[in-house]
Amino acid sequence: MALRAVRRLATAALVVAALSVVCFGLLDAAPGDPAASVLEARSGGRPPSPAAIAELRGEMGLDDPPPVRYWRWASHALRGDLGTSYMSGRPVTETLGDTVPWTLLLTASAVLLSFAAALAVGLVAALTRRAWLRRGIDLLLFVMGGMPGFVVALLLLYAFAAATHLMPSGGVSRPGEPVTAYGLLAHLMLPACALAFGHHFGVYVRLVENGVGRLRDAPHVQNARVRGLPRRTVVVRHLMRPGLVPFTARLGVGVGTLVAGVYATEVIFSWPGMGREAISAARAQDHPLLIAIVLVTGLIVIAANLAAELIVAALDPRARTGRADAA
Amino acid sequence: MPPDAPASAPARVRGLLAVRLWPRRPALAAAVAVLVALVLLAVLAPLLTSLDPVATDTSATSLKPGSPGHPLGTDLLGRDLWTRMLYGARTSLLVGLTAAAITVGLGVLIGGLAAIAPRWLDGLIARTADVLLALPLLVIVLALAAVAGPSLGLVVAAIALTSWMPVALIVRAELRGRRERLYVRAAYALGLSRWQVMWRHLLPGALPPVASIAAFEVGHAVLTESTLSFLGLGVPPNRPSWGNLLTEAQSHLLTGEWYTVAIPAAAVVVTIVAVNAVAGAVAGPSGEGGTW
Amino acid sequence: MPGMVKRPVMAVMAVVLAAAVASACGQGDEPASGKGDGSLTYAIGDEPETFNPGLQDEHTDPVTELVFRGLTRHDRDNKVVPALARSWDIAPDGRTYTFALRPGVTWQDGKPFTADDVKFTIETVRDAGADSPLSRNFTMVRSVEAPDPATVRLRLDEPFAPMLDAVSMGMLPKHLLQGKKLTDPGFGRRPVGTGPFTLTAYKHGQYAELTAFDGYYEGKPGLKKVVVKYVPDDSARLIQLRNGEVDAANLAPQQAGKAGGHRLEVYPTADYRALMFNMKDPVFADRRVRQAMNHAVDRDAITRSVVLGYGTPAKGPLDTGPYAAAPGFAFAPAKAASLMKEAGYAKNAHGSWAKSGRTVKFELTTFAEDSLRVAILNVSATQLKQQGFDVDPRPRPRDWVRKHWGDLQGMVVGWGTPYDPDSSVYGPFASSQALDKGGSNYGSYSNPAADEALEAGRSTLDPAKRKAAYTAFQQALQDDPPFVWISYLKTINAVPKDLTGPAQRTLGHHGYGFFWNAETWRYN
Amino acid sequence: MTSSGLTITGLTVDVPGRRVVHGLDLAVPAGRVLALAGPSGGGKTLTARAIAGLHPHGGTVLVNGRPSVRGRDVGYAFQDALASLNPTVTVRRHLTETVKAHGTGDPGAALARFGLDPALAAAHPFELSGGQAQRVALALATVHGPPVLIADEVTTALDPVTQAAVLDLVRAEARDRAILLITHDLAAAARWADDIAVMRDGRIVEQGPADRILADPQSDLARGLVAAATAAPVAAEAPPGDGEAVSVQGLRRVLRSRRRTTVALDGADLAVRPGEAVAIVGRSGSGKSTLVGALAALDRPDAGTVLRGGRDVWALRDRDRRAVRRRTGLVFQDPLASFDPRHTVRQAIAEAGPYDDDLLRYVGLDPAMAARRPATLSGGECQRVAIARALAQKPDVLLADEPTSGLDVLTEDRVLRLLTGLRRDHGITIALVTHDLRVARRVADRVVVLHAGRIVEDVPARALDDARHPETRRLLDATALTGKWA
Lengths: 327, 292, 524, 486
Description:
The structure holds four protein chains of four kinds.
Chain B: H1 5-13, H2 17-20, H3 25-43, H4 45-48, H5 81-116, H6 119-134, H7 137-148, H8 152-179, H9 182-189, H10 194-230, H11 242-249, H12 259-283
Helix pairs in contact in B: 3-5, 3-12, 5-6, 5-8, 5-10, 5-11, 6-8, 7-8, 8-10, 9-10, 10-11, 10-12, 11-12
Chain C: H1 6-28, E1 39-44, H2 62-67, E2 72-74, E3 80-82, E4 85-90, E5 96-101, H3 115-127, E6 141-148, E7 151-156, H4 163-166, H5 174-177, H6 185-189, E8 197-203, E9 207-212, E10 225-230, H7 234-242, E11 248-251, E12 262-277, H8 287-296, H9 299-305, E13 311-313, H10 333-342, E14 346-347, E15 353-355, E16 358-359, E17 361-365, H11 371-386, E18 390-393, H12 398-403, E19 410-415, H13 422-429, H14 448-459, H15 463-479, E20 483-496, E21 499-500, E22 522-523
Chain D: E1 6-15, E2 18-28, E3 33-37, H1 44-52, E4 58-63, E5 66-67, E6 74-77, H2 91-102, H3 107-113, H4 130-142, E7 148-152, H5 160-173, E8 178-183, H6 186-192, E9 195-200, E10 203-209, H7 210-215, H8 220-229, E11 246-256, E12 261-272, E13 277-282, H9 288-295, E14 303-308, E15 311-312, H10 318-326, E16 328-331, H11 345-352, H12 357-362, H13 379-392, E17 397-401, H14 409-426, E18 429-434, H15 437-443, E19 446-451, E20 454-460, H16 470-478
Parallel strand pairs in D: 3-8, 3-9, 6-7, 7-8, 13-18, 13-19, 16-17, 17-18
Antiparallel strand pairs in D: 1-2, 1-4, 4-5, 9-10, 11-12, 11-14, 14-15, 19-20
Helix pairs in contact in D: 3-4, 4-5, 5-16, 8-14, 11-13, 13-14
């Protein structure tokens, strides 16, 4: 077990390293000159002179060959220095410190909301004998499955903020006022829902529904019933525990999907997270910031995958021994 | 095999493609009809409207749906929404279908390779796909799009590059799963060659799930196109696509022109729902409902 | 079996519901605005990368405008009036400026404001080169002298008429920036100036909170707090305004009627939109073609439709200022046709003007992110097509455009300034500022008559001579139009009904300048 | 009617659309074992499930004179023991939760009663062998001391030695409770039950003491079952030819999975003459199926040679080896799984050789079935299609891997008769793998016993009773009809 954990962590580290190389390479291969972008942005869009570009390139160290630059970046990164943003000139770590917690908060809330709701709806769908209820859920999931995240976001925005003034439409608090738990919950509600109930929601419901539904008449569940166990035990231990393994195994990927959806959501709800930062960084060719954000996202997803693996291992001993069929 | 196999036969039969379609047939028929209609509308767009999708008309701005000559109304600049929706369908469906085709082709190729590759290569491919699946490649695509400028080809490539993984993993799992099946062993025992077994037993068996995921991928591609366009990094801005229409109209949500948002949004949702319905029917009951 | 599931499911549902209800209630009873505490929350779309006035152009964003003051400033007619400089004296040859500084001015951190700060500011910006867009205003400054803490003297190599405008740039605190680069990000985010409001909190991507500066040299402002909230999305701004999340907001034209119980402050701006042509492209070589296109565009229709009347048809680049003299072009298809025929064109089978088989074919582009420019692009392209010009409307991403200035054929551009005309006409129209010379004359427009007038306008301080020069300049552009002029924009801001103080003035780019007299604003 | 034990009157069971069990009356007094025997699809399992309370039913089910309470009164051991255990929970958890639910019982003692090490309680179900799983399932069904135990085909998947051991333990449980043994194997019923009820189409056809039914069956069904269980060996009609149709020498094969390696074959030698029928007998895990794979030239051995017609098949070119495979018919234990689910019967057969209606007729099937898919056929029909497919190959060797283990006795009889007929009509060499010596006797001229990857016994079928090797003796004992539990 310990060995496995070490191996998983080593793999994760390797993945992060590989990811950084890929990002670096891709951005490097992209046409366009960050130095020119920076100068243009500083001069209000005026094309900069070649001399100024050359000077800035030298300053930014862009003229070294890519491996040298990568090594420089990586060795700094290992010491916790992710460089400075081309655009704002701030240390990337500072920007991350400002934005990542918000993204984590939003993503975590959406993950909880999405998975809790998927669990609830999936269980109802799997266990109910009422055809209308199941059909209703089917229909709901079908329609939801066709909704791009930003359409959901706009709908929520319209329904709860614009039309009814029930909830705040954006940001994390009223500007200038301290962030309170209460106010934060209010501001979190819409973006978290928008993120949680996108087109992928149905997949999780289906995972629960199929995982549990498949086991509803499984021999071991019948055995549990025929032994006269309390309903609670039958459902929780014998139906849900093994039935939720496929769902749990996908949590990691699910978190990844949600994180990918965070960009549009943050833009629509003015959420001060790294997604918005990423889009502006991408547009401005702010490579240090962009790479850092991609890596942080990768870390989140890898952490989520590890967590999911741990949960699966806790739920299903087969996973602990590395049997592939557990997933 | 249970001793009372005949009794359980009906349940098994449902797993088979043809029979499985029965229970949902009305919904499926409706979905197929919707898709066929959409494709027809897109293909026949020039016959169905005489207007130019980008031509403005300052004398006919902000007309409500149902106005004479403008069945779906016009936007703030007097562009005919019906025309724009038709041409938008062309772009969106073109992107959706091409991207899905490339995605599926790539996925089948890589997944197939993984399935027959030696263990280390297979492991490498599977791990890579797992990792890529989890990572926000979209960001990198955004960066590339920002620099290279939007183009249809880039959108298609971006979608394909970021969505082949589930296809590959499913194909790989299907092929590997099937390779272990007894009937494959039986086929080898009949003296069939690898190629024959692959062609007659492995691939056809993997077809329904692949067909299903291919359908899902079409929906996914339409969806990604609209999201990319929404972020301003998708289809070239002035080219009508549903995503672009949504993006442009987005700011009218609260002003009088709500229908300029509602109509393309509805088109996207209806298309994906129909595609998913078809995909779900093709996948059969064991299909988990595809991608993300 | 159905009963079996209820408990866990109900528990989850209960939690979700409780959270929803809690948050809904939490919002419902919040006050609709911060009027009670004398604060104003204002939503705007653009957020600058820095609040350092030395790194911005003359159109400063609200925060920079509120935090900083220059030696001079502009009044409601955009005339230069004293600010940190109490008075000034210009030598007759126009090469020496002596400013007498207002006594007793302090920085927002309590340090006294002195002539050293002015010297530091001007020298730093002058020497910043490409880092600062405003350095061009000071390249002719040979030396800055501070004979005593209350006096500053500028010595110029040559006369520079807009100098009094140029020194309206916010002054920088030497004690905070000395030894650092002008681009220092710390200062850019935590600026300290001499203006009426102090930046007390800034969350990038969220808001900037400004608190009244007690030590402001004109006395304490009427508002206790101004919060500038950055909401890039048009709809979101409107929603937040109607939702009571902000008290005031910058609105798009079509939202003007939806602002609920707010008062609209609609101000003209000096910001115009026009179609620029790349003169290196032979299609545009004949001035009659460009004149014809100017006659082919129906500016009234564009103003009516694209900005819903919140705009003024444009005649030339200086319509909103005291030098306005452009005759302008009327929408006259017949006139356009005759000009084209005169230029040797004839309608071909597709109804397009063509000469020796070549139509007036060009791509018209603009920043795809800018929906207003895209709308102008599409409407004017349609109008031009209707008059026989073979236009291909094709918006492109900002970054793409930035890398392809020289390859563009036609582009929807925006220029204009409410202040000294030189800054917004010299760059775009002087042949010395052509793109390949590193200037902002992106169309490489070259017109000796215009060049002559521009040079005359910037090198004399005599108002009458300047008026004559710019009149000649506008006539030169009329004869040989570099642009198809479209429209000046108006800016719409919704403010609380009981807020007094906002006063109409011709604003700059992006409608910046709305807060020009914010120190006098207060609630009734 | 006694008030102790299980008393069933007028039991009816419906599945959607039809009635499957029509008014069943049964009584199992405490201390006795009643075997409910009969062919597949007769309603045995549904009856058992209804009694246990897993399926709604009509009529009354009384335990010790009172209506039965689900869980408390009837212990139920499932056919597939492994599947009936929650894979995510330890054995101990299973036992203790039952004890907790009923407030009585001792997990350790329950395991011990079924001959299991109490340390096994810490194991998860998937770590158990088939026999262990079945014992755990039985311990679980009886840990809280229910007055009634239903054992539903508990030994179908087990080899005869394990089967005998498990049924002995079940029998031992009858000391203080009533036991209902569901089985399709009349031989097993006769050996381990006191009474037998023969059931078909939801009705009891015949009921009585086991000895009586075995000795003097009254109904056609009972007669058929008895005949099948006691069928005499079929003498070889054509004497085997000379030479070797197929042979293996020093065969060694190691199976590697991610977690462990198993030596499945460890120097096995076997030669089969043309026209001969050899039965390869052994317990689970003895390497039988691996040997079939080697004989079929499908799996390359780690050491040793596989000869067909004197040629080493693994020295052949790929194409020639495929030709060898084409001349080798292969019939699997799970016939359904051996067909591509998308293919019809006709397509499946056509893949082996030209399709001919006569093939289906020969195996006793209606040619109309050619258009159906295997999934719609019964187990016996499926196995006959498999034989038809093998026949279509025009093989000179037919390998059959436990072809009857999933079938009820009557179906098994039909398939075995078909196999012997095949040899008679076509002179095909047969190698039959089975764990059931009775099957071996019926088909084979010669029986080889495989144990731990080696051939430990090689005797003519008629001399089987005199075999001396302990493994052979164990197999013989396990399948003995008589020799009641003691």
